[in-house]
Write a structure and sequence with these properties.
- The complex is a heterodimer of chains A (about 425) and B (about 110).
- Chain A is an all-alpha fold and about 425 residues long.
- Chain A has a single domain, classed as Ammonium transporter fold (Orthogonal Bundle), CATH 1.10.3430.10.
- Chain A contains 14 helices and four strands.
- Chain A starts with a helix and ends in a 13-residue tail after the last helix.
- The model of chain A has no long low-confidence stretch (mean pLDDT about 95).
- Chain B has about 110 residues and is an alpha+beta fold.
- In chain B, about 20% of the residues lie in helices and about 40% in strands.
- The longest helix of chain B has 15 residues.
- Chain B has two helices and four strands, in the order βαββαβ.
- In chain B, helix 1 packs antiparallel against helix 2.
- In chain B, a hairpin with a 2-residue loop joins strand 2 and strand 3.
- Classes of the chains: A mainly alpha (about 425), B alpha+beta (about 110).
Amino acid sequence: MEEVVKGMAEINGVLDIMWILIAGALVFFMQAGFTLVETGFTRSKNTINIIMKNLMDFCIGSVGFWLIGYALMYGDDIGTFIGTPSLFFNNAGEMHNLFFQTVFCATAATIVSGAIAERTKFTTYLVFSLLMTVLIYPISGHWVWQGDGWLTKLGFIDFAGSSVVHSVGGWAALVAAALVGPRIGKYTNGKSNAIPGHSILLGALGVFILWLGWYGFNGGSQLAISGTNVTAVSNIIITTNLAGAAGALAAMFFTWIKYGKPDASMTLNGVLAGLVGVTAGCAAVDNFGAIAIGLICGVLVVLSIEFVDKKLKVDDPVGAVSVHGVCGAIGTLLVGVFATDGGLLYGGGFGQLGVQAVGVLGIAAWAIGTSFIILFILKKTMGLRVSEKEEVDGLDIHEHGMEAYPDFRLNEH
Amino acid sequence: MKRIEAIIRKSKYRVVKDALHEVGVNFFSYWDVTGIGNEKEGHVYRGVSYSTSDIQRRYLSIVVNDDFVEVTIKALLDSAATGEVGDGKIFVSDMEEIYRIRTGEKGGETLR
C-alpha cells in the first residue's frame, strides 16, 4: 500500500512537470503570433525587420534569462525587492521552471517591438531587449511571483501576468514609442493619418496563434495538473477563453456602432485585450467575471487605441500599448472587483481593489521609469531611429539587405 | 481606321469583352491602370478615416476600321455602364497606319 501511494505521488509529479513543459511550448508559439500580428499590421517594406526583431528578442531573452534573469527573479529574496544574483542557472531539478519562465520573459520583451515598428534601429532594439530580459522584467516579476516580494506580502493577485508580463511590456512599449517618435507621415498638421497594414490575414493568423498560446500561458500558470489541479486548470482555460471571446464581441459591436462597419483589426485587438485582461484573474474569477472583464477590455482597447493615437500622438502601429499596457493594468485592477473571494462585487469591500491598485501603479512606475532611463541613454548614445532615407525606403532593404516579397508587386506607400 | 480607347470598371470587363465579340471586334489589348477621378472611396483604418481617390480600372485599346467605329462605341456604352459615377471614358482618335508583322501587309485588311 505504501508503495502504491509513493508511486502515485511520483506519477503526479511527472504529470505536473509534463503539463508545465507542454504549456511552456504553447507559450513559446506565441512568439510566432506576435511576429504575424506585427508584420500584418505594418507595411510590407519592414517585414524582415519585424521577423528579425521577434526572432532575436526570443533568442536574446533565452540566453539572458538563463545567464542571470532567472536568478534575479526567483533567487533567494533580498529586501523583498530582488533575487540573489547568480550566473548560469543549472539546478537540475528545476529546468522545467527555467523553460516556463523563459518563454514568459520573452513575451514581455517582444511586446515592445510592435509599438516601435517601422522606424527603430535594429542594433538599439537588440540592446534594449537584452536589458528588458535581464533587468526590467525579472525585478518587478520578483515582487509578485517569487513568494517573498513586497507585492506578494501585500496580497497582490496577478495569477499569470496581466501586470507582471503584459503591463511591463506595454508600458515599456509606450515609453519606447514616445521616445522614438512617430513614423514619417503619421501626423501632418497635428492630424493623425491612417497607415494601413499590409496583411490583415497575417494579423488574424497571429491572433489565433496567440489565443492558442494563451491556454498554455494561463492554464500552465497553475504549475500543476495532477489531482484537483486538473479542475483548476480546466476552469482557468474556460475563464481565459470566455474573456477572449467577450473582448472580441465587445470590440466588434463597439466599432460597428462607432465607425459604421465591424472593424477587423480592432476586433482582433479585442481578442487580445480580453485575454490580457483576464490573465491576472483567470484563477480568481468565475465565468461571469471573466466575461465582464473581457467586455470591459474589448471596449477599452478601442478607446485607448484612439486616445493614444489621436490625443497622446504616440504612434503605436499595432496597439501594443493599449492591448498590453492599458488592458493589463485594468485587468489586474478588476481582480479586486470580480474575484469571487475578496472582490468588491462579492462583498469583499475595497481592500483587494486597493492592493491591486498599489501593484498596478508600482509595476507601471518601475517599467516606465527603468525603460525611460535605458532608452534615454540609448537615444543619446546609439540613437533610436534609422535615417529618413532608410525609413522611407523600408528597413528591410537597408538594415537587412533584402525584401520579404521579392516577386510580388506591392503598393509603395 | 480609328483607335478607340476605353477606361472601364474591372468588374465590367467580362460583359464588355462579350459585347465586343458580339459586334465582331475580336482583337484588342488591355491593361490594368490606376487613376485619379471623381469617385472617392471611404475607408476607416483603426479609427482613423481616410479616403483615397486612387481608383483601379481596366484600360482597353481597340483599333478598328471606320465602318466598325459606331457599333464598337455603342457596344462599349451599352455594356460598360452602371449609371454610377466612375463608369469610365471612351477616347476616339485617328490611326495613321497599321502593319501586320508576320506578312508585312498594311492597312485596314490587317484587322480582319
